[in-house]
Amino acid sequence: MPSMYDRIREDLINKEQALWTALTSADPAPAIKKLCNPEGNLMFPQMPEILTLEDESHFNEALRPPFHRFDGYQLDEVRVIIIDLMAGAVTYKVRAVRGKKEYRATCSTTWGQGSDGEWTLFSHSETLQ
Q1: Which residues pair with 109 in a beta bridge?
Q2: Backbone phi, then psi, for 31, in 5-degree steps?
Q3: Is the pTM of this model over 0.85?
Q4: Considering only CA atoms, which of 99, 97, 79 is closest in space to residue 89?
Q5: Which SUPFAM superfamilies is this protein grouped with (predicted)?
Q6: What does the alpha-carbon distance between residue 85 and residue 103 come to, in Å, rounded to a whole number?
Q7: In order of start, what are the domains of the chain with their CATH numbers?
Q8: In this predicted model, what pLDDT tens digit does every residue of 22-47 receive, in sequence order?
Q9: pLDDT tens, 56-108?
Q10: Closest Cα to residue 45, out of 87, 98, 106, 110?
């Protein structure tokens, strides 16, 4: 039987993959909203403002298609840091491609688990490599 920490690591890696599946989809905003805590922040390269759910129309506009639209992505050097049983961070490098265009970034996402057991995103940031 896997340990509690192994299950947390697996949950957080699955959530990170769900985030990137959403980020690289044709219309990312609805899926990303579902992953976010109401207090969540998202910071992307070359985007001057920090995205929050406070202004839903701005959030939707900032993530409008074709935001981060890629044909595929790969997470490398994934590291899960368990802060406690209800919080953790995932750090990694991402490589995403669209045709011949390549996107590389170093990323970090902090997740928290609510009383309902659901993990939600508190902070996500990407730094171009």
Answers
A1: 90, 124
A2: -70, -35
A3: yes
A4: 79
A5: NTF2-like
A6: 33
A7: 4-128 (3.10.450.50)
A8: 998 888 999 999 999 999 999 999 88
A9: 999 999 998 877 778 899 999 999 999 999 999 999 999 999 889 999 999 99
A10: 106
Cα dihedral sign, 76-87-114-5: positive
- Tokens linked to 116: 């309902």
